[in-house]
Write a structure and sequence with these properties.
Chain B: Keywords: Membrane, Transmembrane, Transmembrane helix. The complex is a heterodimer of chains A (about 300) and B (about 650). In chain A, about 45% of the residues lie in helices and about 15% in strands. Chain A has about 300 residues and is α/β, with parallel strands linked by helices. Chain B is about 50% helix and about 10% strand. In chain B, the strands form six sheets. Chain B has a five-stranded antiparallel beta sheet with strand order 11-6-1-17-16. Chain B has a five-stranded antiparallel beta sheet with strand order 8-2-15-18-19. In chain B, strands 7-10-9 form a three-stranded antiparallel beta sheet, with no helix packed on it. In chain B, α2 (about 30-50) runs parallel beside α4 (about 80-95), α5 packs antiparallel against α6 and α8 (about 170-180) packs antiparallel against α23. The chains are: A alpha/beta (about 300), B alpha+beta (about 650). The interface between A and B is medium-sized, with 19 and 17 residues.
Chain lengths: ~300, ~650
C-alpha cells in the first residue's frame, strides 16, 4: 500500500522531470514542499522555468491552476475577488478572485505593494479569504507557488521576514547545465509539453501520501540534531536572528517528506541537510548583510559547524 | 544575614571537621575543654537550624572569662605545647558560637587546620599522618561547601572537589619535604610525658631490669652497613657504666669523681662495624653504642668511660651513625686513684661474699683469670637464671650468692662485680641492651626493652677492661637467642610468654609492621640526615641559584599543569559506552587522516571509508548500517549495541598505528 503510493509519487516525479529537464532535485524539493503541505517560493530570474514547473505540477496532480501576475498597481481585490451589487437580485454578489483555485502560481510576488502581498499571504496562512466581513474558504488542496525576482532588481518590494516565514521553502532553479540546455534548445518550448502531461497523482492520493509522510519516524538523536541546528542559528556569531520554532517544525516536516520520498520510514540527518537550505535559508539573516541574500552562505556554515552527533 | 547562605551540608561538614580535628587530643585534654567543644558544636547546630538565637554578648563574655580561668587553672601557668593547643581548641569552640558571616565560618576552619597540625606535636606516626590527611580533606571539603553558598552539593561532591584541590599540593609537599631546611629548635618542642618510654635507669638495684623484661616497648633499631649484623653474642649495646656500690645499688660516680677519671684510651683490634641507630625517646640523656664505639657522632659527647651522652634528655626519636670495633683494648693502664675507685666497696655488709672472694683468690693463686673462671663455674654449677628471683634482704649480694641462688642478669652482674672487687680486681657494672631481633624485611635489628641487660667489665693488668657476662655462664642461650625467643622457649620456667607472640604468622606480621614503622621513621621523619648529601647529588651543588631554581621549577611546572587543566579544551566524557567507543574509533581514524566531518553521520562517514579500506569494508558497512538503525530508526536493541561495540573494537584493533597510506 505504502509502496504503491510511493511508486505513484515516483512516477509523478519522473514525468515532471521529463518536462523540467535537469531539475530533478528542484522538482523533488517542490514535491517535498507539496507533501509537507507548505507553500513554495521560487526565487529566480525570469525565464528559468518557474511557470513551467507550476503548470506541470498542476497537470500531474490533476488540479485546476491559476496564475496571477503581480504588478505594482495591483490591489488586494484583484487577488481575493470583489462583491458587486447585483441589481437583479438586489444584493451584493461575491465574485471570487484568482486565489480560489487549487494550485496558484503567484508570479513576481515582490513586484506588488506590501498591501497586496499580504492579501495573498493571509489567504495562504488561513486557507480562507475575508471579503466585506464574509469568509470564503479556499478549495482543498491549496498550494501556492510564488516566484520572486532577486531583490536587487529594480521595482521590487522585498517580502518582510514575517511573510517569508509563511513559505515553507524557498528554492531557486538556476541556469540549466550546458547539455541540458542544448537539449532544451533542440526540443522547442517546454510549456506546451507541460500541457500534455497526464494526471498521475489525484488529490486523494496526494492526501494519502501526505499522511504517510507525517508518519515517518524521527528519533531522539535526529531531533537533537535539528535542535542543535536551530540553537546554532541563535547562538553563533554572524547570525542577526535565529530560526523560529515554527521554522524548526517546518524543517522536521520537510525532512520527513524527503525521507519518505527516498523510501525510508525514518529520518536521517542527510534528509535534514538536504532540505536545510530551502527551508532555513530564507529564515535566517547574516548580521552583516541587509539584502537577505546570504542565506545559503549561512546554511553552509551551519552544516560545517554543527556536528551531527553533537560532539 | 549572610549565614543563611551556608547550607546544611556545609554546617555538617564544618562541625564534623572540627570534632575530628580535636579527636587526637582527647587523651590529654582537660574534660571541661571537651565539654565546651561539644556544647558549642551542639549550639551551633541549634542556632543554624533556627531553634536557638545567637548567644547574648554577656553570655559570650562570661564564657570567655570562664574559659581563660579554666585554662590557667588546668595548666597552672605552665607554658608548653599542651596549654597552647588547649587555648587553640578553646578559641575554636568559642568561635563556633558566633558564626554570623561566611568569613567567621572560614576562620573556624582555618583554626581547625592549625589544630589538626598540632597533632603532630604529640604523635608523628604514619597512622597519625594518614588521619590528619583525612581531616585536612574534610576541612577542605567544608571550606568548599561554604564557598558554594546555598548551592552546596552532596557530601561526596564536596569531598571529591577537596581531593582534587589536594592533588596539586602533592608536588609542593614533595618540594618542601626535600628542600625545606629542618629547623630543629623551632619544631622540637618538648612534650611532657609523651612518647618517652621508661628504659634503663641511671642506677642499678635488684629488680630494675627485671621490670623492663616485661616490656616489649621498642628501645631502638639499628641498621648495619652491608647488612653485616654481628652475631647475637657480640651484640652488646653499652649505655651506662656504674662504678659505685652502696651495698645494694650500683650508681654512676658523682660529677666530681667523674672528673678525676681520665678519658679511657681504646685501640681497635680488627674489623670495624658501621651502623646507624634510631633511638626511641627515652627521657634520659644517654645513648647506646655497640661495644666499643670509635668516636661519638655529631651532637653527642663521649664520656670518660666511653659511653655516649647528650646535653639534654632524649625526648624525640634520634638517628645517629657510629663505627664500632668488637675487638679492642681498653685502658691498659690504670692510675692508683682509678684502681681505688674501681675497687671501692662499702665498709660493712655482705660478709659471706667477701669471704668467698678471699677463698677464690687463694684457690686461684693470684691469677685473676683463674678466679673469674672459678666464679663462672660456680654460677654454672648451681645457679638459676630466672625472671622471678624472689625478694632479697639487706645484704643483697650475700642473699643472692648463698640463699636464693637464682637471679636475673642484674643479680649476677652485681654479685660478680662485688666478688671481683673484694678479690682486688677492678670491676664495674655496665648496663645496656643485649641481642635484639633481626627484621628480615627492612634488614635491621630491633631492640626492645626486654633486651635490657647488665654485665660486668673487669680490669686485668696488661689487658685493660674486659667484658665479662656472668649471664652467659648461667644461661648461654639467653645470649645466643634474642630475649623474646629465650623467654618463649622457656615458658615452664617463667610461667608465661614474655612477648605473647608465640604464633609464627603473628610474629611475621608484627615484624612486617615494625619494618614499616621503621621505614617511616627513617625515611620520612628523620629525613634531614640525608638531606644535604641528597640535594648535592640531585642539584650538583647547593648554591643559592640552584636552590632557587629547584624551588621555582616545580612551582612553575605545577602551576603550568593546573593552568593547562583549567584551560584545556574539554572533551566531555560521554555517558554511553557505545558512544565512547565510537568517539575513540573516530579519534583513531582522525589521527590517520580519515576524520569525520561535522556534517557527516557515522554511517555516511564509514561508508565513505569503506571504499578506502577494503580489508575492513564489511565491518565498516555493517557498523554504518547498524549505527543508522540504532540512532535514527529506533532500532535500539541490546544485541545491536553489543554487535556495534564489538565492531568498534575490532576496527580499532585492525587500524594501522601510523599514518602510512
Amino acid at each position: 500500500m505504502a509502496d504503491t503510493l510511493r511508486k505513484e509519487v515516483d512516477q509523478a516525479l519522473a514525468s515532471l522531470s521529463t518536462v523540467l529537464l535537469g531539475k530533478t532535485s528542484s522538482v523533488r524539493l517542490a514535491m517535498t514542499c507539496l507533501l509537507a503541505e507548505g507553500h513554495l517560493l521560487i526565487e529566480d530570474l525570469p525565464g528559468m522555468g518557474k511557470t513551467t514547473l507550476a503548470h506541470a505540477l498542476a497537470r500531474v496532480l490533476g488540479v485546476d491552476d491559476k496564475r496571477i501576475q503581480f504588478t505594482s498597481d495591483m490591489l488586494p481585490a484583484d487577488i481575493t475577488g470583489v462583491s458587486i451589487f447585483d441589481a437583479a437580485e438586489s444584493r451584493f454578489r461575491f465574485h471570487p478572485g484568482p486565489v480560489f483555485t487549487q494550485l496558484l502560481l503567484a508570479d513576481e510576488i515582490n513586484r506588488a505593494t506590501p498591501k497586496t502581498q499580504s492579501a495573498l499571504l493571509e489567504a495562504m496562512e488561513e486557507g480562507q479569504v475575508s471579503v466585506d466581513g464574509e469568509r470564503y474558504a479556499l478549495p482543498e488542496p491549496f498550494f501556492v507557488i510564488a516566484t520572486q525576482n532577486p531583490s536587487s532588481q529594480y521595482g521590487t518590494f522585498p517580502l518582510p521576514e514575517s511573510q517569508l516565514d509563511r513559505f515553507l521553502m524557498r528554492i531557486s532553479l538556476g541556469y540549466p547545465a550546458p547539455e541540458v540546455e542544448r537539449q532544451l534548445l533542440a526540443g522547442g518550448g517546454t510549456r506546451n509539453q507541460a500541457r500534455q502531461l497526464e494526471q498521475q497523482l489525484p488529490p486523494e492520493r496526494l492526501a494519502a501520501a501526505q499522511a504517510a509522510c507525517a508518519e515517518v519516524h524521527a528519533s531522539s538523536s535526529l531531533i537533537a540534531y535539528v535542535q542543535r541546528l536551530l540553537q546554532h542559528t541563535r547562538d553563533a556569531a554572524g547570525f542577526s536572528y535565529g530560526v523560529s520554532p515554527r521554522g524548526g517544525l517546518a524543517l522536521l516536516r520537510c525532512a520527513r517528506c524527503w525521507a519518505w520520498l527516498a523510501g525510508r520510514d525514518h529520518v536521517v540527518p542527510e534528509d535534514v541537510q538536504a532540505v536545510l537550505g530551502p527551508v532555513v535559508g530564507h529564515r535566517i539573516r547574516s548580521a552583516d548583510d541587509l539584502s537577505g541574500q546570504e542565506g545559503d552562505r549561512l546554511v553552509a556554515r551551519l552544516l560545517a559547524e554543527v556536528d551531527v552527533l553533537g560532539h | 544575614m549572610k549565614s543563611a547562605q551556608i547550607s546544611r551540608t556545609a554546617v555538617a561538614l564544618q562541625l564534623v571537621a572540627v570534632l575530628l580535628a580535636v579527636v587526637p587530643h582527647v587523651t590529654w585534654l582537660p574534660l571541661w575543654v571537651l565539654a565546651l567543644l561539644l556544647a558549642s558544636t551542639g549550639s551551633r547546630l541549634m542556632i543554624h537550624s533556627g531553634r536557638w538565637p545567637f548567644p547574648h554578648w554577656l553570655v559570650k563574655a562570661v564564657l570567655v572569662a570562664a574559659a581563660s580561668i579554666g585554662l590557667i587553672l588546668s595548666f597552672n601557668h605552665r607554658a608548653g605545647p599542651e596549654s597552647m593547643v588547649a587555648l587553640l581548641i578553646v578559641a575554636l569552640s568559642l568561635k563556633l558560637l558566633e558564626v554570623y558571616h561566611r568569613r567567621d565560618a572560614f576562620v573556624v576552619l582555618f583554626v581547625c587546620l592549625f589544630v589538626a597540625a598540632t597533632s603532630f606535636l604529640f604523635d608523628e606516626s604514619f597512622w597519625m599522618a594518614l588521619y590528619i590527611l583525612a581531616v585536612t580533606l574534610l576541612i577542605l571539603a567544608a571550606l568548599n561547601s561554604i564557598q558554594q553558598g546555598a548551592g552546596a552539593g552532596r557530601y561526596s561532591t564536596n569531598l571529591k572537589t577537596a581531593a582534587k584541590l589536594l592533588l596539586p599540593a602533592v608536588p609542593f609537599m614533595l618540594v618542601l619535604f626535600f628542600l625545606f631546611p629542618r629547623l630543629d629548635p623551632l619544631w622540637s618542642v618538648r612534650v611532657q610525658g609523651s612518647g618517652a618510654t621508661t628504659g634503663l635507669s641511671d642506677e642499678l638495684s635488684p629488680g630494675d631490669i627485671e621490670s623492663l623484661a616485661q616490656s616489649s616497648a621498642l628501645a631502638f633499631r639499628a641498621t648495619f652497613e652491608h647488612d653485616e649484623a654481628p652475631p647475637p653474642e657480640q651484640r652488646y649495646w653499652r649505655a651506662l657504666v656504674m662504678s659505685e656500690f652502696d651495698g645494694r645499688r650500683w650508681t654512676r660516680p658523682d660529677p666530681a669523681t667523674r672528673q678525676r677519671l681520665r678519658p679511657e684510651k681504646m685501640t681497635a683490634e680488627g674489623a670495624v662495624l658501621e651502623y646507624s641507630v634510631v633511638m626511641e625517646p627515652s627521657g634520659r640523656p644517654w645513648l647506646v653504642a655497640l661495644d666499643q664505639p670509635l668516636a661519638p657522632a655529631p651532637g653527642m659527647a663521649l664520656s670518660a668511660v666511653r659511653t655516649l651522652q647528650l646535653d639534654a634528655p632524649l625526648e624525640r626519636r634520634r638517628q645517629y651513625e657510629l663505627r664500632s670495633s668488637p675487638a679492642y683494648r681498653l685502658q691498659p693502664l690504670l692510675t692508683a686513684a682509678e684502681q681505688r675507685h674501681y675497687l671501692q666497696l662499702p665498709r660493712g655488709g655482705n660478709l659471706q661474699s667477701r669471704a668467698l672472694a678471699r677463698q677464690l683468690q687463694q684457690q686461684a693463686g693470684g691469677d685473676p683469670q683463674a678466679l673469674i673462671r672459678a666464679l663462672m663455674q660456680r654460677f654454672n654449677r648451681s645457679y638459676v637464671y630466672t625472671l622471678e628471683p624472689g625478694r632479697l634482704g639487706r645484704d643483697s649480694v650475700d642473699a643472692f650468692l648463698f640463699d636464693t641462688q637464682q637471679g636475673y642478669c642484674e643479680h649476677f652482674a652485681s654479685a660478680t662485680a662485688f666478688v671481683l672487687r673484694s678479690a682486688g680486681i677492678p670491676a664495674r657494672v655496665v648496663t645496656g641492651y643485649q641481642g635484639g631481633e633481626w627484621n628480615p624485611y627492612e634488614r635491621y635489628i630491633q631492640v626492645r626493652q626486654y633486651d635490657a641487660h647488665a654485665w660486668v667489665e673487669a680490669w686485668l693488668p696488661g689487658q685493660g677492661w674486659r667484658r665479662l657476662d656472668p649471664t652467659a655462664a648461667v644461661a648461654p642461650e639467653r645470649i645466643r637467642m634474642s630475649a623474646g625467643d629465650f623467654f618463649d622457649t622457656d615458658q615452664t620456667r617463667f610461667g608465661r610468654a614474655a612477648t605473647g607472640l608465640d604464633i609464627a604468622w603473628l610474629r611475621t606480621l608484627s615484624q612486617r609492621y615494625d619494618a614499616f614503622n621503621f621505614a617511616w621513621h627513617r625515611w620520612v621523619l628523620n629525613y634531614q640526615g640525608e638531606q644535604s648529601g641528597l640535594l648535592e647529588d640531585w642539584l650538583g651543588g647547593s648554591d643559592t641559584w640552584r636552590l632557587v631554581l629547584a624551588w621555582l621549577l616545580p612551582t612553575g611546572v605545577v602551576f603550568g599543569l593546573v593552568a593547562w587543566w583549567q584551560l584545556r579544551p574539554r572533551r566531555v566524557r560521554h555517558p554511553d559506552p557505545l558512544e565512547r567507543q565510537l568517539q575513540a574509533l573516530q579519534q583513531a581514524l582522525q589521527r590517520l587522516g580519515w576524520g569525520r566531518e561535522p556534517a557527516e553521520t557515522v554511517s555516511a562517514w564509514l561508508t565513505r571509508l569503506a571504499d578506502e579500506w577494503p580489508s575492513m569494508r564489511a565491518e565498516m558497512q555493517r557498523l554504518a548500517w547498524l549505527d543508522e538503525q540504532q540512532r535514527y530508526a529506533g532500532e535500539c536493541s541490546h544485541d545491536v549495541r553489543g554487535e556495534m561495540l564489538q565492531l568498534c573494537r575490532r576496527l580499532r584493533q585492525q587500524l594501522p598505528r601510523k599514518r602510512s597510506v
